[in-house]
Amino acid sequence: MELVKLTHDNIETEHICCAIAKNNDVQVMSKKQWLRERLEEGLVFLKCNVRGKCFIEYIPAEYAWTPIEAEGYMYIDCLWVSGQFKGKGYSNLLLEECIKDSREKEKKGLVTLSSKKKMGFLSDQKYLKYKGFETADTASPYFELMYLPFSENAKKPCFKPHLKQSGQKNAQQGFTLYYTSQCPFTAKYVPILLNIAENKNIKFQSIHIVSKEQAQNAPTPFTTFSLYYNGRFLTHEILSEKKFQKIVTDMGL
C-alpha cells in the first residue's frame, strides 16, 4: 500500500481521511488550517493512498495539544483505520512507519491517549498492548496515557499534576465545552450544540482552545472535545445533534 505524507505542497489537493469533502467545507477548512500551522512544529499526517479513514497523525510531545509531560517522545494524535480498510494490516503499517520515523528522529518512544474500555476518538488499548504499549499514567474519569518506550531507561511520561486535582477549578454552571480544531468534526457540531442550547435557553459556554500552551494547561486530558455540566465531566465523544438532544432530555432541561 502506498503511503502519502501531507506537506505544504500537497495539502490543498489531498483529502484528509476523517472528513472527505470539498476544500470549501467548513470541516476541511478548519482541519487543514490547523494542520498547516502544526507542520512547522513537526506534525506528521500519514495516510494510505485511499479515500477513507486510514491514517495516522503524530507530533513531538512537546507540541502536543494535551496536558502531558513527555519530553523527547512522539505523541500520536490519532490512528484511525475503519470500514473496508480494517483487517488488512494497515494499522500495523501506519504504526510501524511512525515507529521508524520516531526512531530516526531519536525520540524516546511513543505516547497516546486511551482507555480500558474501547471508546470512540481514543486509541484501542487492546491493540496498543498487543503492540507493546504500557500504561504510564491515568486521569479521571477513564483516560489512560499509554506509552511505548524505545529503551529500558526511558523516563515514563505522565499527565500534568493539575489533572490529578479533584474537580474543575472555577467550574462554570451549565454546560462547559473545551474543544480544538484538531478534529474537523468540531467545526460542524459545536455550532449545532450551541444553537440547541440557545434555543432551549440553556447556559452553554464553549471554550475554543487555539494554542498548544492553552491546551497543555487545559483541565481535561482530551482537549479535542470535552463536555462538562456544572463542573462534572460528561463525555469526550463529539456529539451529534441527536446525542446532545438526548443528554438535554435525560437531564430534564
Based on the model shown, name its key terms.
14 strands; Glutaredoxin; alpha+beta; 2 domains; four-stranded mixed sheet; eight-stranded mixed sheet; 26% helix; single chain; 253 residues
Write the SSE topology.
Elements: E1 3-5, H1 26-39, E2 44-48, E3 54-60, E4 68-69, E5 73-81, H2 90-104, E6 109-115, E7 123-124, H3 125-130, E8 134-139, E9 143-149, E10 158-159, E11 175-179, H4 185-199, E12 204-208, H5 212-216, E13 225-229, E14 232-235, H6 241-250
Parallel strand pairs: 5-6, 6-7, 11-12
Antiparallel strand pairs: 1-2, 2-3, 3-5, 4-10, 6-9, 8-9, 11-13, 13-14
Helix pairs in contact: 1-4
Tell me what you see in this structure.
This protein has 253 residues and is α+β, with helices and mostly antiparallel strands. The chain folds into two domains: 3-163, Aminopeptidase; 165-250, 3-Layer(aba) Sandwich (Glutaredoxin). 26% of the residues lie in helices and 27% in strands. It has six helices and 14 strands. It has helices at 26-39, 90-104, 125-130, 185-199, 212-216, 241-250; strands at 3-5, 44-48, 54-60, 68-69, 73-81, 109-115, 123-124, 134-139, 143-149, 158-159, 175-179, 204-208, 225-229, 232-235. Strands 1, 2, 3, 5, 6, 7, 8 and 9 form an eight-stranded mixed β-sheet that branches. A hairpin with a 2-residue loop joins strand 13 (225-229) and strand 14 (232-235). The mean pLDDT is 92.
